[in-house]
Amino acid sequence: MLHIQLVEAMKSGSDKQKMAYKAIEDLQIMDKLRSYNPVVCGTIPIGLDIEGSDLDIIMEISNLEHFENKLRTLYGHKDHFSLKRTTINGMEVVKANFKFKRFDFELFGQRRPVHKQNAYLHMIIEYELMQRVSDLKFKVLELRRQGYKTEPAFCKILGITEDPYQGLISYGIKEGIISK
């Protein structure tokens, strides 16, 4: 799967990607949280990171309380650890944030397979679009440095006028990058 290739490429990618990969390995996230199918998402694996970009790891969970307890046990002692349960798009989720080795981590879990979560879909769409359009990465990075979030930057460049998070998914479906 593409997300595995992207994470593997981080081992020999930019200096930031290599440091991010090492931080993930040092925390043993992929092993210690294996039962939740963790997937590294976001801008760092696809090379769209800017100063302050965080490391996002999404997971599929069935028991929110059990997941919260596991995160507290494993990472509750990390700098700036916070944990919250909230509702996004009508679905209850758990988010844990902390700092480790110069990176802001966000561990995110919801009752949805990782390959159907928006963070995963956005990353796949963004990566594939950058493969198709030669200067797209440069244009997105320029907008990101001006303060745009990733999805709104893509939508501005692509002329998508609806909500950028849903609009990018609709565009990915229309372009045959992902399916419903």
Provide structural commentary.
This protein is an alpha+beta fold. The protein has 8 helices and 5 strands. It has helices spanning 2-10, 15-27, 29-32, 64-75, 118-132, 136-145, 150-158, 164-174; strands spanning 39-41, 55-60, 79-88, 91-100, 103-110. The protein has a 5-stranded mixed beta sheet, with helices on both faces. Strand 3 and strand 4 (91-100) form a beta hairpin. Helix 5 (118-132) crosses helix 8 (164-174). The protein is globular. The mean pLDDT is 94.
Q: What is the radius of gyration? A: 16 Å
* Main sheet makeup: 5 strands, mixed
Alpha plus pi helix count: 8
For the residues shown, what is the average pLDDT? 94
Task: Describe how the helices and strands are arranged.
Elements: H1 2-10, H2 15-27, H3 29-32, E1 39-41, E2 55-60, H4 64-75, E3 79-88, E4 91-100, E5 103-110, H5 118-132, H6 136-145, H7 150-158, H8 164-174
Helix pairs in contact: 5-8, 6-7, 7-8
Summarize the structure.
The protein is built from eight helices and five strands. By secondary structure, it is of the alpha+beta class.
Give a quick set of tags describing it.
180 residues, 5-stranded mixed beta sheet, single chain, alpha+beta
